[in-house]
Amino acid sequence: MKSDGRALIYMGNDGVSQNLLETLQLNDWHVKQTSNIDEAKQTMREHKLHVGLIELTCQHTESYLSQIQEMLQQYFQMEWIALVHSETGLNSSLKHIIAESFSDFHTLPVDPGHLLANVGHAYGMAKMKWDTVNIPDETDGLEQEMVGSSQQIQNLFANIRKVAGVSAPVLITGESGTGKELTAHAIHERSKCANGPFITVNCGAIPHSLIQSELFGYEKGAFTGANHKKLGHFEAAHKGSIFLDEVGDLPLDQQINLLRFLQEGTIQRVGGNEQIPVDVRIIAATHINLEQAVKTGKMREDLYYRLNVLQLCTPPLRKRPGDIELLAHYFFKKFSHEKNKTVKGFSSACLAVMRDYAWEGNVRELVNRIRHAMVMCENRLISAEDLGIDESSHHFHFMSLKEAKDRAEREAILNALARMHNNVTLTAKTLKVSRVTLYRLIEKHRININD
Ligand SMILES: Nc1ncnc2c1ncn2[C@@H]1O[C@H](COP(=O)(O)OP(=O)(O)OP(=O)(O)O)[C@@H](O)[C@H]1O
Ligand SMILES: [Mg+2]
């Protein structure tokens, strides 16, 4: 992303703008002019901008206005100023949007001195936001939806870009609420089948008896009640992607059909005998350890290897505490239309508590607590109490060095055991400790190697 010094974007009517833009340019502003939302987004992806000026008129449709609002939420680190033709002529949707999403407004024709002072101030505010929320510079669109500047999330972004370019299956692993579904979407959106459908199937939520017909469809007369032919999710996803969420929940007897598709690229509808070719990109996700599921006989080994061609892992929040503040600001802006009007942000004590809180539910928990607090908070700044976090609870404590070491030790052992299929001799070798030491540590950390 290019940085152009004091830069602003102007979106509006050419005729209105000429004098205004010249004044700004004469006063050392780099001005990007655009006439539509897509172009504006493209410009903001490529340039680091501080202020946005948008001309709003009563002729704008509700859908255009909601797209504007969405764009402003995406680019929350900028300051937005509305330009309107007459304050008295504003309809209620316009008033609502200006009050909620813009930091100021001017009535056209603007007083140049007043506007310059205003954009100067907005620049200062935006610069502060850019500096404090630490938004990564190399954003290319993907990060609009997935936020994070930590090394872990940047690695994930880089891997998303890499796997999006090939058509092999992708397996996304990660704890609950870490962004597996978001990652699947991001892969699809950057793949060559981005214009095709994206179909999500929650493998654990379909009743056992319906799985086959839901996934592969059925022919008329296949069973009582099958009065007409029905396409399954695979056929619906033709030329697009199918996201098999919680693929580890797929019953063993149904796994063979998925395996067949992965081997042959064809499906067979229930009650039919034709092999129908389907062109679908498979993206699967799981929060359980599939290697373990293979060991315990809950997952076919051949299916596991077919699914696990490219693996991505969504990191838990505790491994990237530096992202918490960024996410908090992002969600605050994203849900600002729902908030209590008096609420302006988070107290610094609250941000500190957030960084140290054990987010068991990861990003989903963070989003839910913030949305709740934004509605319930009666003060200007959200406190830890508004988030429902008790500062003195067991969740909130600074980790001692010993605790941090213990946690790292446990994790290293768990990882090595998983890689070595719980073989203690090999795990001990990998960790460069004796078998006796490893057994002692397994006991110390209460690790169950028979799972
Ligand atoms: N990096 C991120 N930036 C912005 N929002 C995020 C990020 N990661 C997760 N979220 C948000 O957190 C919530 C949970 O994300 P998602 O559903 O993708 O997680 P998941 O891993 O599929 O969860 P589960 O295991 O419970 O199905 C969503 O509201 C999503 O938008
Ligand atoms: Mg999910």
UniProtKB/TrEMBL annotation:
Name the domain of life.
Answer: Bacteria
GO BP annotations of the record are:
regulation of DNA-templated transcription
Asked if the Swiss-Prot or TrEMBL record annotates the protein with the keyword Transcription regulation, the reply is yes
Q: One Pfam family, please name it.
A: HTH_8
Can you name one GO molecular function term for this protein? ATP binding
Q: Where is the Sigma-54 factor interaction domain?
A: 146-375
| SUPFAM superfamilies per the UniProt record, alphabetical | CheY-like (SSF52172), Homeodomain-like (SSF46689), P-loop containing nucleoside triphosphate hydrolases (SSF52540)
SMART domains to which the protein is assigned, alphabetical: AAA (SM00382)
Q: Which UniProt keywords apply?
A: ATP-binding, Nucleotide-binding, Transcription, Transcription regulation
For the keyword Transcription, the answer is: yes
Q: Which PANTHER family match?
A: TRANSCRIPTIONAL REGULATOR-RELATED (PTHR32071:SF120), TRANSCRIPTIONAL REGULATORY PROTEIN (PTHR32071)
Name of the molecule in the record: Response regulatory protein
Say which species the protein is native to: Methylophaga thiooxydans
Give the taxonomic lineage as stored in the record: Bacteria, Pseudomonadati, Pseudomonadota, Gammaproteobacteria, Thiotrichales
